[in-house]
Design goal:
The complex is a heterodimer of chains A (about 800) and B (about 220).
Chain A (H helix, E strand, L loop, with lengths): L5 H18 L15 H13 L4 E7 L3 H15 L6 E5 L4 H18 L2 H11 L3 H13 L6 H8 L12 E3 L16 E8 L7 H26 L6 E6 H35 L3 H25 L9 H23 L3 H24 L7 H32 L17 H22 L18 H12 L7 E7 L2 H20 L3 E6 L7 H15 L2 H11 L3 H22 L9 H8 L2 E4 L2 E10 L6 H6 L4 E3 L2 H35 L2 H24 L12 H21 L4 H24 L7 H32 L5
Antiparallel strand pairs in A: 1-4, 1-5, 2-4, 3-7, 6-9, 6-10, 7-9, 8-9
Helix pairs in contact in A: 1-10, 3-8, 4-19, 4-20, 5-17, 6-7, 6-18, 8-9, 9-11, 9-25, 10-11, 10-13, 11-12, 11-13, 11-25, 12-13, 14-23, 14-26, 17-19, 18-19, 22-23, 22-24, 23-24, 23-26, 24-25, 24-26, 25-26
Chain B lengths: L2 H11 L17 H8 L6 E11 L7 E10 L4 E6 L5 E6 L2 E6 L4 E6 L9 H5 L6 H7 E9 L2 E8 L7 E9 L5 E8 L4 E11 L16 E2 L3
Classes of the chains: A alpha+beta (about 800), B mainly beta (about 220).
């Protein structure tokens, strides 16, 4: 078998592994990797479930002048409407004429769904006595010489259907009337585009669709510049669910592919530097690819879609699994026996090492982050698969390649290194430096504004942030989702939420809020109002006639006409016992954003503005099991709180338990002390890096601490036992276990380090911290610990 | 209209139709505007008698009114009124805009800097542009043409003032480059044409003209 050409072996197994990777489905739903019991995470989940549309893209336009933005948006929307195979619907700000046509249905519904007192007032205004007065006032307003927005509204709505009270309950201040689609100066405008032709729940399909849209927009931009000139240049942004999904999904695929390829190449280079042989290297690489393929297949069956954090498991697994191959290869070189003998000699050690590593990674299940737990489970499963594949697959190959190889004598590396002098100095200086640095500068702490699912260099996120800052009233506004299992329950929950929110406002925890009370259907209220509406319907002909006589044109009476038409339809629906929802494009647009029904659960969307978005006091004041907030601001704080608890709950007891186990293993206090000091020393190096370099801690990379603790202990145990066996001979220990530790440490660091370029900020920071920590562990174990061992055991040179 | 009503009105009506118009930009003969601006030198106050025609798509017949404007550049005050006796008075002083309906004995106060200032009135409330830099800061020129004895400087107000406005045209005399009137076309097709019948520079303006007596008037939201 070993006579097969290396390229054939790597190609065949690589193709199988690539096929398996391509079959992996990533979940682009980022909040699924966060603790599900946090109200902020529940808020994101419910916001996504009830109020987000998979295929709805938000197109933003930014121009120097408002008229350019308007014109560009109109031109682009008109062109998009001509491509039904790509875009099924475009919703942009409606023209006044369109609003008059479309707004009547919504206004009619709001009156019918509103309070009986308000409707009675309207009835009085529309009565035979009231209407001449209302029309007269409207005409006086038009003749006043004014020409402002109110006058224009009045000219289309002389009977005042738009003068409806209590529309948006709350204390929104200036936020009550911001334009949801245009910035205050008009230079930034948005439109909503409903995609067509693909399944938007699949991010790969969404990516293909998004690329088509981008190409379409580029082509339109070229036409725009060609007709309008360079001075009319505009900036187009694409954001919303399909853009996020496509970006996150493809970035995860890219992360996994790049990190696996980089890890493979670097590990191969490392192997070649140490052994200068290509044929065994090709089998080693093939074994690693096989491990990856098997793990992905099993993982796919067990876990389904993988999260953004799990994208990093493959590289970590490569870095760990290769160690077993190296152990087998070196043992085959040294012993020269057959495969069975090889398995007998190093098999138990490899299996125990795999089991220990698996347990360390499984311990990530104790973390509150499901995404991290999933990654831990995949790596744990992978190392077990790796141990078996290496023992039964690569082991025989390693034996066959090492038959007849002459073993080179070990070179004593102990005499030429500087650690003999510096080990003692560093043992004092590094901890001292760490303490002084913390005292002088700052204690290591978790980033307060860490957003775990921040994707680096995300155009859709940039467009989204621009939208939030440009549109008035959007900054720091937190969507708040209220749910109930019936409309009645939803209205009760909404009332309860309103009380809590008002109390929070009084306590100055919130600055503003908007409740969608008027937009939630109230079947009882609608039935109560039906008779009044019917009586108003009888006045329609008279009112239209009065408006005509007063001088209003057909356009001036159109809104009145559509309101009465809508009432007529609604009363018919009510009579048939249906739940009446408003009709018309504007109505659907408004209601869909504030009220939803999904699988028997009814949901309403409110908005609150916290005084201090990162605090959690307001979250506790507002939230209940049926009222949750999709707050990114407080999520970072919540995660930090939760991870802090995890560290105390999981990590400290784990450290205590492992220390006891170490005592049992070593049965010598000096060796136990050395092992623990090595860990402390590595910790001090990390502290120094945290204080003096841009490296920082967040709620994701802090979970790498148990991994670093595990590898640190592992390395120190190996080295101390080697030193015991050699009677404290540093040269012998380094030539044997030292070389193996260098390879293992470097390969693991390569695996983690390859994640540094990952798109997910949390994953990248975890990779960096673990790579640095493992390298530090390796350096301490191979170069410093032997010298400390000799010093503590008072061995002479 | 209360704030909630205004909110709905905004949802329903503020988004005026999107329009297209030719770009002129750098090709326009800005010397016309330059000359107009130069007529402002030495003018500290002004009184303009005007007639106005408003044509709205929702009304069958146009509405015609006449009135006057007084502007005091030194004290940054202005008064606008239509009808004789005045039916509607708008004054600006102390950063506030007062809209007074005399027949109804009602008035409304608005911030003079807010977006609620009516189209056209914004130009008057802040005074017509008096320098080239001020003009270019507030308006972008779409075209400059001639009609009979006048120049038509077709512009778009920049920023918020331009929302819902299709064109804002200054009409200047070809002989003296003085402002003769203006025409505002809104996106829904409605338009208002204001002709300046008599312009009196440095007119004597009584001190109390900008602070009309509103005793007994009720404050409201029109």
């Amino acid at each position: 078998m070993t006579r097969l050409h290396p390229i054939i072996v790597v190609t065949v197994i690589g193709a199988i592994a690539a096929f398996c990777i391509l079959r992996v489905q990533f979940s682009a739903t980022l909040y699924e990797m966060l603790p599900a019991d946090l109200p902020e995470v529940q808020g994101m989940d419910r916001l996504n479930r009830y109020f987000s549309r998979d295929g709805q893209l938000i197109v933003t336009v930014k121009a120097e002048e408002s008229y350019l933005a308007e014109e560009a948006l109109m031109s682009l929307s008109a062109k998009m409407e001509e491509t039904p195979e790509l875009i099924s619907e475009v919703f942009r700000e409606l023209s006044l004429t369109e609003l008059v046509t479309e707004g009547g249905g919504l206004l009619a519904w709001l009156w019918m769904n509103g309070s009986s007192e308000n409707l009675a007032e309207l009835g009085s205004r529309l009565s035979a006595e009231g209407s001449p007065l209302a029309i007269g006032e409207a005409m006086a307003s038009l003749q006043s010489g004014f020409f402002d927005q109110d006058v224009i509204v009045t000219s289309y709505d002389p009977l005042g259907f738009s003068k409806i009270g209590g529309l948006m309950d709350g204390d929104a201040g200036e936020a009550s009337g911001p334009d949801p689609m245009t910035s205050t100066d008009g230079t930034f405008q948005v439109m909503y585009v409903e995609g067509a032709g693909v399944d938007f729940s699949n991010y790969r399909d969404a990516e293909v669709w998004l690329e088509k849209v981008k190409a379409f927009v580029r082509e339109w931009e070229q036409e725009w510049i060609a007709t309008q000139g360079e001075e009319a240049a505009i900036e187009i942004g694409l954001t919303g669910t399909p853009a996020f999904m496509a970006e996150v999904g493809t970035e995860m695929e890219k992360d996994m592919t790049i990190s696996v390829v980089v890890t493979m190449l670097l590990i191969s280079l490392l192997f070649w530097i140490m052994h200068r042989r290509t044929r065994p290297l090709s089998w080693l690489v093939s074994a690693m690819l096989a491990i990856l393929a098997i793990t992905i297949l099993i993982g796919g069956v067990l876990f389904g879609d993988l999260s953004v954090m799990s994208a990093g498991f493959a590289a970590i697994l490569m870095g760990l699994a290769v160690d077993y191959g190296i152990v087998l290869y070196r043992e085959a070189m040294d012993s020269g026996g057959d495969a069975k003998a090889l398995r007998r000699s190093v098999g138990p050690g490899i299996l125990w090492a795999a089991a220990t590593t698996a347990v360390v990674f499984l311990s990530l299940n104790l973390s509150s982050l499901p995404g991290l737990a999933e990654m831990g489970n995949l790596v744990a499963m992978g190392v077990v698969v790796g141990a078996l594949v290496m023992l039964y697959g690569f082991g025989p190959v390693a034996v066959s390649f090492n038959r007849g190889v002459v073993k080179k004598p070990a070179v004593d590396q102990s005499r030429k290194d500087l650690t003999r002098v510096w080990a003692g100095v560093l043992a004092i200086l590094v901890p001292l430096g760490a303490i002084v640095s913390m005292a002088m500068k700052e204690m290591p702490h978790l980033e307060a504004n860490f957003h775990p699912f921040r994707i680096r260099e995300s155009p859709s996120m940039v467009a989204w942030q621009q939208l939030q800052s440009e549109l008035a009233g959007r900054e720091n506004a937190v969507p708040t989702v209220i749910t109930g299992d019936s409309i009645e329950a939803l209205n009760e929950e909404l009332d309860a939420a309103a009380e809590r929110i008002e109390s929070a406002k009084e306590a100055e925890l919130l600055t503003q809020y908007v409740l969608p009370t008027a937009f939630i259907p109230l079947p009882k209220q609608q039935l109560e109002n039906i008779e009044t509406i019917r009586s108003l319907l009888n006045e329609k002909t008279r009112l239209i006639s009065e408006l005509n006589e007063a001088g209003f044109s057909e356009e001036g009476t159109r809104l009145t006409q559509t309101v009465f038409d809508a009432w007529s339809n609604y009363t018919d629906q009510l009579a048939e016992g249906e739940l009446v929802l408003p009709t018309g494009k504007l109505a659907e647009w408004s209601i869909d954003r504030l009220f939803a029904e999904e699988e028997g659960v009814y949901a309403a969307l409110a908005t609150v503005k916290p005084s201090s978005p990162r605090d959690r006091e307001w979250v506790a004041a507002v939230c209940s099991p049926n009222t949750v907030v999709a707050s990114l601001g407080s999520l970072g704080t919540a995660l930090n709180e939760r991870i802090g608890q995890d560290i105390l709950r999981v990590f400290l007891p784990m450290m205590g338990l492992l220390s006891i186990m170490l005592g049992v293993v070593f049965r010598h206090w000096k060796d136990l002390l050395l092992s623990l000091f090595s860990l402390v020393f590595t910790g001090c190096i990390i502290v120094l890096l945290t204080v003096w370099t841009p490296m920082s801690w967040n709620s994701f990379n802090i979970c790498g601490l148990p991994l670093l603790f595990g590898t640190g202990l592992d390395f120190s145990i190996h080295m101390i036992f080697a030193l015991r066996r050699s009677g404290g001979d540093v040269g012998v220990a380094r030539a044997g276990i030292g070389k193996a530790l260098v390879f293992c440490g470097t390969s693991s660091a390569i695996g983690f380090g390859s994640l540094a370029s990952a798109s997910a900020y949390g994953l990248a920071s975890l990779g960096v911290v673990c790579a640095i920590g493992i390298l530090a562990n390796m350096v301490v174990a191979v170069w410093l610990l032997p010298r400390w061992y000799r010093c503590l055991h008072r061995l002479s040179s | 209209m209360d704030s909630s009503g205004r909110h709905l009105a905004q949802i329903t009506f503020t988004c005026l139709a999107l329009v297209t118009f030719p770009l002129v930009g750098d090709g326009a003969d800005m010397s016309v505007v330059q000359r107009w601006m130069s007529t402002n030198s030495g003018v500290h106050s002004i009184k303009i008698d005007f007639s106005q025609t408003r044509t709205m798509t929702s009304i069958k017949v146009p509405i015609r009114q006449s009135g006057s404007i007084w502007l005091n550049y030194r004290s940054n005050q202005f008064r606008w009124q239509v009808g004789n006796p005045p039916q509607t008075i708008v004054t600006k002083h102390n950063g506030q805009l007062y809209i007074i309906r005399t027949a109804m004995k009602k008035y409304e106060r608005r911030s003079a800097s807010s977006g609620d200032v009516p189209h056209g009135l914004m130009a008057m409330a802040s005074g017509f542009p008096r320098s080239m830099s001020e003009f270019q800061r507030k308006y972008s020129v779409q075209s400059i043409g001639t009609t009979g004895s006048t120049y038509e400087v077709v512009t778009l107000p920049k920023g918020q003032a331009g929302r819902g406005v299709k064109t804002f045209t200054f009409i200047l005399g070809r002989d003296d480059y003085r402002l003769r009137g203006m025409e505002i076309i809104l996106s829904d097709g409605s338009y208002v044409k204001t002709a300046f019948n008599r312009v009196t520079p440095n007119a004597g303006i009584p001190g109390n003209l900008f602070t009309p007596d509103i005793t007994g008037f009720k404050e409201t939201k029109f």
